[in-house]
Amino acid sequence: MTMKTQTGTSRRDFLKIAGTTAGGLVIGFNWFSCDSPKMEVLSIEQVLAQAKPFNSFLSISPTGDVVIFSPNPELGQNIKTSFPMVVAEELEADWAKVRVAQANLDPEKYERQLTGGSGAMPHSWERLRKAGATAKFVLVAAAAQTWKVPASELTVSKGMISHEGSGKKGHFGEFVAVAATLTAPEEVTLKDKKDFTIIGTPVKNVDANDIYTGKPMYGLDFQREGMQYAMVQRAPFGMKLVSVDDSAARAVAGVTNVVTFGSSVAVVGTSTWPLLKAKKLLKINYEPDGAVESTADHDRLFTELLASGKAEVKRKDGNVAAAFKAAAKVVTAEYQCPFLAHSPMEPENFFAHVQGDKVELVGPTQTPDRARQETAALLGIPPENVSVAITRLGGGFGRRLRADYVVEAVEVSRAIKAPVKVTWSREDELTGGAYRPAVRYRFEAALDTNGTMTGYKLKGVGMNAGNTTREGNFPSGAVDHLLIESVEHASTITTNAWRAPITNFLAYAEQSFLDEVALAAGKDPVDFRMELLNRAKTNPVGELGYDVDRMIGVVKMAKEKSNWGKNPTIKQGFSVYFSHKSYVAQVADIDIQGGAPTLKKITAVTDCGLVVNPTGANHQVRGGIVDGMGHAMYTNLTFEAGVPKQRNFDTYRLIRLKEVPEIDTHFVDSGFDPTGLGEPALPPTGGAIANAIFAATGRRLRSQPFIEQKEFSDLQLQIKRG
Amino acid sequence: MANFTLKVNGTTHQVEVEDDTPLLWVLRDHLNLVGTKFSCGIAQCGACTVHVNGNATFSCVTPVSSIGNSEVTTIEGLSKEGDHPVQKAWDEVDVAQCGYCQSGQIMTAAAFLEQNPSPTLEEIDNAMNRNICRCGTYHKIREAVALAAKTK
After folding, report:
1. Rounded to whole angstroms, how far apart are CA atoms B98 and A620?
2. DSSP states along A478-528
3. Looking at beta carbons, which residues of chain A come within 8 Å of B90?
4. Which of A7, A181, A222, A428 has the fewest Cβ atoms nearer than 10 Å?
């Protein structure tokens, strides 16, 4: 079915063609500046000569080459490939003639120019389609006018417009001049999904060749004539700077300056290595400025706050006290996770050049507008005086949602009156804050004599976690009597969204606990969940934040694809979770034949609506699972007197290649529009593995990381590739 | 400060830096070869991997003074046209997510396959275990190394 749709919601994108909406600025290579490519902020004319802008998303040159602008920061979620695929689909472009350019921050043109919450695709899906369809409409109108034939007789395929009657044929470029004189339509027709030729096909990463040949493309690669380098020493959590002796640091060859702002001290120089040395030579005195916390304090606070009456009620259905009083059986358990750093492979960095009341910023950010706003606020200048060029990001995981490291670069540039790039070391990154919050949950479940869950209680305590729960999520809606509460401790240790915020741990805890309840009820873990889901479908309790049918869809398919319960020597763990608008069920397989239990495979079934790029979708699901598994198994961040004890990858352990099992991915064809996939595959993984470990060994893992739990220490769990 | 003559990607370069400057920072800050990446700085993640006389080497902990007459190859010099069998396999398999660690992964794989042209899957795993990929592209890395071994 084709779809007629108003272009009206974003009229400014479409109504003016050419001239007035010039192409804007992008980040790219300037091949003409020197022998080797140099990363620069370029105008569209430097990217594609004589390009005519059709709207915010695309320009076409007289040669028929198409440049599609990708507004959202690319950090590995593949948006720089999948967004242009959607535009090109409706444009009927020849993908081989499409080039993709990373657009600078331009809130006038792009409504939501950020990467986070797996929200880009659902937000922009229709908008991108309309951008392509509108340009195609105008090109067809231009061809019709040129050839003096009715537009309805023209067909478009792979960047070519054809008129069957006369045999006339021409590429897009031949019509851009005429198209520029026309007005865009108020309404366009979008393609029927069954006619898609680009969407749904495996399209390669548009930056692949540049990545594999080492071209400058990340923030850390950006250089500018006259640029200084800087590194910053930050205060421990709960401390502030009293005095600094920088004499030894200044004596290091290559160090040109040392500047202080707030409790931070920046060493400045002509290259990076002298700064790494000089920073260690700073002698800084600090004094307490709030609570100086250690991990032992957090453990005590978790216990105290869970026991205290202090808690915010997030959801209350029925009469929980009565349900627990009447219960035949009550199951109770507590689950805990540590703080985690984001540890993107590219450490934080940013280029800033403050000149009078204007600032140029270049670097890796998930939120370019936040970088602009915080810079403007710091300097007391209008936001439009701050330009932001977005480089490719060497990972993000939520770390680059914050602008703290951008503002630091602005501080240093202002102080030294020169362009500067501030670079963080790995130690800076692990000690610098913005962590996934540490959380403890207490769960209680009431079962009646039939093993039906009649009551459910969840109470979460988080360190600067905000709401530690997702009160609309399953099993809400499936239980008559339910109470969900959250308590927060305001810690001096700063936290931040971390890939799949809150659910990255809540899902593990909740799916493990439901496994415990199913076993207490004497039921198969999948059957037990299906019972609850059927209850939520036929007679839901209160408001549901999820679509029960879609969740049932992934549960059923995962049961089938994993051969659930069919092989007696394979012990399995089940987990299913809804987050960021997508549904993912996972089954972990542990082989118990011979010697040590061996984690062999994780089966993942995802409903993210229409899959735009199967290659990218597979990447995100596998990557999310590897991430979820790695942090559940191996990674810990503990504190002593406000300072993290794990300061680099020797002690802050990340998952490695030999530690990943086979991952078998499947997608449900649910007919829904696409949703994001950067996060949803991560939350279910820890639970699937922990439940499989229990099924195989009888050991229940209620804290992360697993390798540090005494229940895990003698298991000798092996991991085998598929 | 001292003067060093370095052979990098077949070209001779002169640099004036401190003796203890790691090769990584000479490449990135002084020779403008930024394809070699900084990530941990302590030989744990492999993002900085280059070849020194053909051996995969963590450039972040290799002082420039230790290089002498050795031949250094970086990702920029692995092939002229970006068509080294390992680069082609990486493209074919579409390995990268964020891509930041991939030049190091490619350099590790290229040196490994030079020394072991027909590896078993287990040997591939052992060789590639020294490089971290935070995006978790490990399955694709395995696949690409095996493909490169087949097509070399």
Report:
1. 11
2. S-SEEEEEEEEE--SS-B---SSTTHHHHHHHHHHHHHHHHHHTT--HHHH
3. 208, 212
4. A181
Helix (H) or strand (E) holding A415: helix A404-416
In a 3-state reduction of DSSP, which class is residue A213?
Answer: coil
**Interchain contact A219–B (C-beta under 8 A):** no
Judged by DSSP in three states, A443 sits in: strand
Tell me, what's the pLDDT at B79?
97
A397 reaches B (C-beta below 8 A):
yes
Q: Are the C-beta atoms of residues A616 and A82 closer than 8 Å to each other? A: yes
Residue A375 corresponds to which tokens in the numbers above? 């810079």
Q: How far is CA A240 from the centre of its chain?
A: 32
| Residue pair A426/A649 in contact by the 8 Å Cβ criterion | yes
Chain B, nearest residue to A424 by Cα: B39
My answer on whether omega of the bond before B22 falls inside 30° of 0, hence cis, is no
Rounded to a whole number of angstroms, the CA Rg of chain B reads 15
Query: How high is the ipTM of this complex?
Result: 0.98
Q: What's the pTM?
A: 0.96
CB-side exposure of A212: number of CA atoms within 13 Å?
30
From the list A682, A630, A391, the residue with the least C-alpha distance to A508 is A682
Among candidates B127, B102, B43, which has minimal Cα distance to A346?
Answer: B102
Q: How many CA atoms lie within 13 A of B113 on its CB side?
A: 22
Q: What is d(CA A696, CA A573) in angstroms, rounded to the nearest whole number?
A: 9
Interchain CB contact of B36 with A (< 8 Å): yes
Q: Which of A32-41, A449-458, A564-573 has the lowest mean pLDDT?
A: A32-41
Does the pLDDT value for residue A484 go beyond 80? yes
Using an 8 Å Cβ cutoff, are A653 and A709 in contact? no
Distances (CA, A) of A710 to A330, A603, A685, A705, B62: 25, 28, 21, 11, 39
- Asked if the C-beta of B44 comes within 8 angstroms of chain A's C-beta atoms, the answer is yes
Query: Which of B105, B91, B87, B90 is CA-nearest to residue B49?
Result: B105
Q: How far is CA A153 from the centre of its chain?
A: 44
In A560-618, DSSP assigns E strands to 570-579, 582-591, 598-607
CB-nearest partner of B125 from A207, A615, A657:
A657
A363: β partners: A390
Position B128: which residue type? M
pLDDT in tens, A434-458: 999 999 999 999 999 999 999 999 9
List the end-to-end C-alpha distance of chain A, in Å, as a whole number. 41
Q: How far apart are CA A355 and CA A224, in angstroms?
A: 15
A14/A12 Cα distance (integer angstroms): 6
Task: Let me know: does A212 contact B91? Beta carbons within 8 Å.
Answer: yes
CA distance A403 to A400: 7
